Write the structure tokens for this entry.
Amino acid sequence: MRLFLAILFVMITLALIAVTSISPRRTKLSIYELERRRRKGDTAAADELRRILLLDDIVSLRKATEALLLVLAVLSAVSAFGFFIGVAISVMTSLVYSRIAHFDWLVQMVDGYYRRIEPGLLTFVERHPRLGQVLRSVNVQNEPNILSSREELEHLIRESSGILSLEEKKLINNALHFHEKTVEEVMTPRGVMNTVAKEDVIGPLLLDELHKTGHSRFPVTDGDIDHIVGILHIRSLLTLDNGKKTSRVETAMDKKIYFINQNQKLERALSAFIKTRHHMFIVVNDYRETAGILTLEDTLEALLGRKILDEFDVVDDLRVLAARNPNKNNKSPSATDVK
């Protein structure tokens, strides 16, 4: 009988060590991210979300089983070896079983077996929620989550009430989506571009017209808007030799011009502005036709999510103005739009 009880003690102790070695996997993804992926049809994320929601019950069940096995080990030791020797063996077992359970090779071996039985355990605790409530003694503290998507970061920003102001939230969101924006989305369309012809005479009349626009740089055309040959800076007019009787725009313009395709990303345009140290690019389409102009100010406004206005700005949004068609482009009395 004592031999049987001794063998039973050894078996219970081994079971105790095995149960203690169980360490349910913890994901680094947040519940929000798992839920987002589940909604997109990711079955693996759905399974992982189910595991996380039931993890407290699994850990509590493991601890309850561990406590039960420890009690049974003590009783079997006392029954097999007598009170004094049994108590001594029980105390020794209580002190060392946890250390043995955390040996790497043992943890790996038990983990392989646990993964096979985990679906059944999850189903069990799912079907018996009251048992989980009775046994639940711990709240599992997951490791700090690692952000896994832009959507998750945006969610955290939206939920950060009291931490970030509305302006700060807007700034961060615009920065997150800046890489998605194209030149075409923020450029000034050709319909409202203010240009000057290279043969225009620089005089009070021209200066007054340029001043009324509220801009400091103007594309210079040679014949039409699809042939831009320079950029006129208002400050360049101040350095002209006043002794000359007449001066034309082509003598004061900057012949160094840069073109950018309307389909380019804004982050590429910003890099180009920094590299070239120019403040205005001519935007062209795939056929090299002028589509509009892009300024450093336009690009920074898209990044910051707010208008950069000064006392010279006449119109807040030139794209809105272009949509109104102030120049009546292709709007003759006999014109009809096909819809």
Summary: Residues 21 and 102 are 6 Å apart (CA to CA). The two ends are 97 Å apart (CA to CA).
